[in-house]
Amino acid sequence: MAENGPSDVAMTEHGSSGSLWTYTAGLGFALLLTGASFLVAQSDLLWAPGVAAGLAVLAVAQMGVHLVFFLHIGTDSEATNNVLALAFGVFIVVLVVAGSLWIIAHLNENMLTPAQMMDMQR
Amino acid sequence: MNAQVANVPVADSGAGPAPVRIVVGYGFWIFLLSDIILFSALFATYAVLQGQTNGGPSGRELFELRHAGIETLALLLSSYTCGLAVLAMERRRMPAFYLCCALTFILGATFLSLELNEFAALIARGAGPSRSAFLSAFFSLVGLHGVHVTVGLLWLIFLVAQTAYRGPRDYVCRRLLCFSLFWHALDIIWVALLTVVYLMGAR
Prior knowledge:
The complex is a heterodimer.
Chain A: H1 9-14, H2 20-42, H3 51-70, H4 80-110, H5 114-121
Helix pairs in contact in A: 2-3
Chain B: H1 2-7, H2 10-13, H3 20-49, H4 59-62, H5 65-90, H6 94-124, H7 133-166, H8 170-201
């Protein structure tokens, strides 16, 4: 396989894997967002019922930072396929997680309590 | 025919085969996404079973945020040094490459030992995986991430040995690229884990 494609040497010369600046900026943003997450979780900065949503937003932002600055998704012209695959992956993940939570919440709601079960057995 | 093909700027026009580096990166990216989907199943399990403590301790009583914060820092810094190792390899600065790999390994091992300590402490106080559905879900989710980190550390050892033995060949560089993708993806999963398990659970 290694012999079929054009040489990789040219690719590594102008290197699509970012620069020192990209990684350092990514680290800075990630540290900032992590710090913000810990702050939100441990203080009363946000309205209490909104904390979970705030944490989720911060986490998604940090994942975006990692994708762009560390994994270099969407920074070069060859990355269209990678972005499409990522979009599909995110779609499946949302389907699995949100779907499970939704179904189980409804199951719990419709479940008989032990007292009702006893009534039925009578 | 060959001469014609050679004249086309391959990567830009999309007319010819993509460089091996792109193809390998794409294939490995697909694997990583499937791995993330595997994790999403365990995340869903954890989210569903979070409240099912069976009278045992809940996350609020068990999790220490300071501990989780140090783990996060170690993993994030190891992700950074892993990126620096890729840069050093691209510029063929081998001493810097070995230094960054060593730092990546040390930080990754720090993360792992902290996690194992936490597990041991939980089991010692009777909050092992068999205590409740919540703890089973916790240990499988966090443990699977730990297993991935372990595999990554072993992979890193082989990668460094191969680089020392074979030199910075093209295929060695591609394997390093795959490793760095793997390592960064683990960090992304840890962000989700930290948020869902520790930050939301400790409140």
